[in-house]
From TrEMBL:
It comes from the Eukaryota. One of its GO terms (molecular function) is monooxygenase activity. Pfam families: FAD_binding_3 (PF01494). This is FAD-binding domain-containing protein. Residues 8-363 form the FAD-binding domain. The keyword Oxidoreductase applies. SUPFAM superfamilies: FAD/NAD(P)-binding domain. Keywords: FAD, Flavoprotein, Oxidoreductase. PANTHER family: FAD-BINDING DOMAIN-CONTAINING PROTEIN-RELATED, FAD-DEPENDENT MONOOXYGENASE ASQG-RELATED.
Length: 480
């Protein structure tokens, strides 16, 4: 049985990362009541590596008025310097320069903590009061008119629906699958349901990642980006105004979908000893005017101020919702390798599509519009069938796009770590050709311009490039 209900609201959001905070902003703009539950002790914490924000994510966030603040605490990206494990150049890539040209907005690298602070500061005080840290979910319980979310501290929260924005190890996804398996079924159906539950809960892990942040040392310039490619491992390195971050992706001996492994200090030390020679800037034989030689992973490690060692899950969950009461966004529904920086940005676009649909449903209900079953409803009792239909439309709108993005990200990591002879050939002799990159980004632009925006938030279009967006930001009505 559920504990006493502490709060009753329209929507319970689980997860207070960048995607969850995007949900909070969107629901605030839509005028939909919510409460957000975050398992960590604080909404903004010095946790996680830097994020690459692309035009699709920045454009959506610009509708909250936060783009100038993001620009102040981030660095634009342009040319990616690419070299092998010995520091020899394998051809620079003007990927971010062409993205800027195509879409009118520079991709930016930003510390996760800084992005979270910007999003928090931009929320109205009333909305900030709905962000509750130290709330770890223990169960979800269906009711006749909604869902009760129970937390390990004994509190519980009831909503018409739950949005799971709680990442790759999503508690919402786990309990959503359990909710589905609790239905009465015959033996054969129960076995099939268990197989589906296992499928919904598992991501494949092919790589592990060691990342760290360190001060911006002499010879490092804000906006610098490099990658070291080679057998079994690849690096990505970004520099901000006051710090730099590097991630090393190492291929595991065999892919696995087992629960994530927790790495020890000994594991970390062995990893750095193995890969400490990898260069983070130009040729190891190079020395600049100040006498600063090439920066290696091992040298940077001696200056580290923050670090982490994790497995990298990837995949797309088959079912993003359960009935009309629980729905997933971001990493809870799909997980990319970090190579293309697409994960967070796609999570933000998930929120765009989902909240556009919720806004229509809740707006119709608030004025007493008949629903699909012919009844007149209030915002607190929208029929589950209407919500279920909206969730299916949301997943259908996003599924193929994120599946393609996930595959492209996986291929990028495979190419950079020379997973096969063909991958090595593509990395060295195809992706280094500028005209090939331009053609690829031309094809990608034809799909990127289809990215939606919040259709209920009026504002000015500040992101304009070579390729016009299909979905325009609604223009504010001018007063006579």
């Amino acid at each position: 049985m559920a504990a006493s209900v502490a709060t009753e609201t329209k929507i319970v959001v689980v997860g207070g990362g960048p995607v969850g905070m995007t949900v909070a902003h969107a629901l605030t703009k839509a005028g939909i009541d919510f409460v957000l539950l975050e398992s960590r002790p604080s909404i903004v914490m010095a946790a996680g590596a830097s994020l690459v924000m692309s035009p699709i994510g920045l454009r959506a966030l610009s509708q909250f008025g936060v783009l100038p603040a993001i620009e102040k605490v981030s660095s634009p990206l342009s040319i990616v310097k690419r070299f092998n494990h010995q520091g020899r150049s394998i051809g620079d890539a003007k990927l971010f320069s062409y993205l800027h040209e195509n879409h009118g907005c520079a991709s930016r690298v930003i510390p996760r903590q800084d992005l979270m602070q910007v999003l928090l500061d931009a929320l109205p005080a009333e909305a900030q009061s709905k962000l509750l840290p130290s709330k770890k979910v223990s169960s979800l319980e269906n009711t006749d008119d909604g869902v009760i979310v129970e937390c390990t501290d004994g509190t519980s929260y009831k909503g018409s629906l739950v949005i799971g924005a709680d990442g790759a190890y999503s508690a919402v996804r786990k309990h959503m699958a359990i909710m589905g398996s609790e239905k009465e079924t015959h033996d054969g159906e129960q076995q099939q349901q268990q197989q589906q539950q296992d499928k919904d809960l598992s991501y494949l892990t092919t790589y592990r990642c060691f990342w760290m942040r360190f001060p911006r040392l002499p010879g490092i310039n804000p906006g610098d980006m490099t990658e070291a490619h080679g057998p079994q491992a690849t690096t990505q390195y970004f520099a901000n105004e006051d710090s730099a971050v590097v991630a090393v992706y190492e291929r595991l001996p065999q892919p696995t979908n087992r629960p994530p492994r927790r790495y020890s200090d000994e594991d970390e030390a062995a990893f750095v000893a193995k890969w400490g020679h990898l260069p983070l800037n130009d040729n190891p034989n190079y020395q600049n005017r100040e006498g600063i030689k090439v920066l290696t992973l091992g040298e940077a490690y001696s200056h580290n101020i923050q670090k982490g060692f994790i497995n990298l899950e990837e995949g797309v969950v088959e079912n993003w919702s359960r009935g009309g009461r629980v729905v997933l966004v971001g990493d809870a529904a799909h997980k990319f390798t970090p190579s293309t920086g697409a994960g967070c940005n796609n999570g933000i676009v998930d929120v765009v599509v989902l909240v556009n649909k919720l806004h229509k449903l809740f707006s119709s209900a608030s004025v007493g519009t008949p629903t699909s079953d012919g009844s007149i409803v209030t915002t607190s009792n929208i029929p589950e069938s209407d919500l279920a239909a909206a969730f299916r439309e949301y997943q259908n709108a996003r599924f193929d796009t994120v599946t393609l993005g996930c595959n492209l990200s996986s291929r990028a990591t495979n190419n950079a770590s020379w997973g096969t002879p063909l991958a090595k050939f593509i990395d060295l002799y195809v992706l280094s050709v500028d005209v090939v990159l331009r053609l690829f980004l031309h094809w990608a632009a034809s799909k990127t311009v289809l990215t939606p925006v919040f259709d209920f938030i009026a504002g000015e279009e500040t992101v304009r490039g070579k390729y016009p967006w299909v979905h325009k930001i609604p223009q504010a009505q001018k007063m006579d």
